[in-house]
Amino acid sequence: MNKLATQSLITHTFSENLYHSWLEFLDVSENTERTYASAGKSFMCWLQQEEITSPNRQDVLRYKKHLLETKSAATAQLHLVVVRLLFEFLAQENLYPNIATHIKSVKSNRSFKRDYLTSDQARRLLASIQSRGAEIQHLFRSALPLGLE
Asked: Where are the domains of the chain?
């Protein structure tokens, strides 16, 4: 393990230069970047809560278990992807070993995502925002994927 591996991962990860290098490494859209940054911060907060300064593979597995207990399968999977990308980047930069290699993905139920609003639910929603102005009502109307009469 190199000299930086014994120092706090948290300190290095939140350094401004390293953060921007990681974002460049990701090569993703702005929205994805924000999502990944949020998931990365969640991991760092968990490490701090658990008082882990030099995480190992077992810690990543414990984090995965924590995610499965507190998040939906899809959200847990997103957070795991970010942890894998983070350690892949840190290993590439010779800052920390890739301890997240071969951590299995979270299985999610693909048969159900979300139901659309029924016509009645959409009408009630629109009626409830009548007092909030035409601009908000227009926003909701344009976001609803159904033809209201």
From this structure: 3-92, 114-149
- Is the whole-model pTM more than 0.85? no
Return the exposure string of 20-49: e unless at least 16 CB atoms fall within 10 Å of the residue's CB, then b.
Answer: eebbeebeeeeeeeeebeebbebbeebbee
Query: Backbone dihedral region of 98: left (phi > 0), alpha (psi from -120 to 50 degrees) or beta?
Result: beta
Helix (H) / strand (E) element for 28: namely none
DSSP state of 114: -
Largest Cα–Cα distance in the chain? 67
Q: What is the pLDDT of residues 77-91, one digit of tens each?
A: 999 999 999 999 999
Structure tokens at 33: 């970047």
Q: How far apart are CA 87 and CA 42, in angstroms?
A: 15
Q: pLDDT (tens digit, 9 = 90+) per residue, 83-129?
A: 999 999 999 989 899 999 999 998 876 655 666 777 888 777 777 76
What are the distances in angstroms from CA 103 to CA 41, 48, 57, 147?
19, 21, 8, 45
The amino acid sitting at 104 is K
8 contacts: CB under 8 Å, gap ≥ 6: 53, 54
The first and second tokens of residue 90, run together, are: 């840190």
